Structures are given as C-alpha cells and as structure tokens.
Amino acid sequence: MSRFEDIPGRAFLDTSCLNFIVENGEYLFNGGKVPERVTERQYSDLTSFYNIFRIGERAFWQIIVSTTSFEEVWNSSDRKKRSILENWVSEIWIYWNELLKDCDDMPSNYEFQIKKEKCLQSEKLNILPDKTDRILICEAIATLWFGIICFF
C-alpha cells in the first residue's frame, strides 16, 4: 500500500512541456475551451496537465526547470512566444532556487552535475540524434535520483 509521503512532490518540466503549457494556458489555467483541431494525443496531454494543475491548486508542487530549458527558451526564434516563456521560466527558476535554499534533501549543484555527466557518458542515449535532447533527458534522470517526477 502506498503512503502519502511516497508521492513525488517535485516536477521537472522540459522545454516541450513549457511550450505546450504556454500555448494552452487559457485552457489549463482558466478553464477555457479546448483548442480546435487537437489530436487524440494532444487532448490526452491537455486533460492530464489540466488535472495536474488542478491538484496543484491544493497540493504543494515544486516545479523545476533546467538551465538547458532556459537556453532553449532564449534561443527561440518566435519573439512573442520567447518573451512569454522567458517570464514564466524566470518565475519558476526564482521559485525553484528559493526552495533549494530551504531543502535539506536536494543535491548540491556538484552532485547533480556528476549524475548528469555519468548519464551522458554512459552513451545509452546516443540513439537520440539531438545532443540537447540527450542533455535534457540526463538532467531529468539526474533529478529523478533525488525524488523528482519528470514530465516529457
């Protein structure tokens, strides 16, 4: 039987999640209409994120973004979207860094980098052609070692 303490309280959002959330914020946060022309997979993602954020209204979620996600946001060619993403990601980054100051169970940056580098050096993700994707996945895996749930 599962205990309440075993439920992850931290969520790692990669860049694709951040984009998806920004693109669908009206539905996710304000209960707006589901966008027209969504695939079955997109509808499933929308309802999943909607439910996660509804739970988050009452639960204490710790949301994490990585420096790689930050870099991808800064390199976005869509200026309007980049501006929205930069604001949102900056808020999450500030929030996350404040939490880190108060959390005894979190790894130091050094410990995190070691886990991430071990993942990259294992070459198990070399099947992915994009290096940034490999780095993001290794960052997610590194955070999982410290009790964090990841969304891709």
Structure description:
With 152 residues, the chain is mainly α. It has one domain (4-151): Rossmann fold (3-Layer(aba) Sandwich). The chain has 7 helices and 3 strands; from the N terminus they run E-H-H-H-E-H-H-H-H-E. The protein has helices at 15-23, 25-30, 40-56, 67-74, 79-102, 109-121, 131-144; strands at 10-13, 62-64, 149-151. The protein has a 3-stranded parallel sheet. Helix 6 (109-121) packs across helix 7. The longest helix has 24 residues, at 79-102. It is globular. The two termini are 27 Å apart.
Question: Which features does this protein show?
Answer:
single chain, 152 residues, mainly alpha, Rossmann fold, three-stranded parallel sheet, 7 helices, 60% helix, globular, disordered C terminus
Number of domains: 1
For the largest beta sheet, what order do the strands appear in spatially? Answer: 2-1-3
The CATH architecture assignment turns out to be: 3-Layer(aba) Sandwich
Please, what is the average pLDDT? 79
Q: What's the main sheet like?
A: 3 strands, parallel
The proportion of residues in beta strands is 5-15%
Q: Give the helix proportion (percent range).
A: 55-70%
Topology as a string of helices (H) and strands (E): EHHHEHHHHE
Distance between the termini: 27 Å
**What's the CATH first level?**
Alpha Beta
| Model regions low in confidence, pLDDT < 50 over at least 5 residues | 147-152
CATH fold call: Rossmann fold
Integer-rounded radius of gyration:
16 Å
Given helix and strand content, the structural type is mainly alpha
Number of helices: 7
Shape: globular
**What's the β-strand tally?**
3
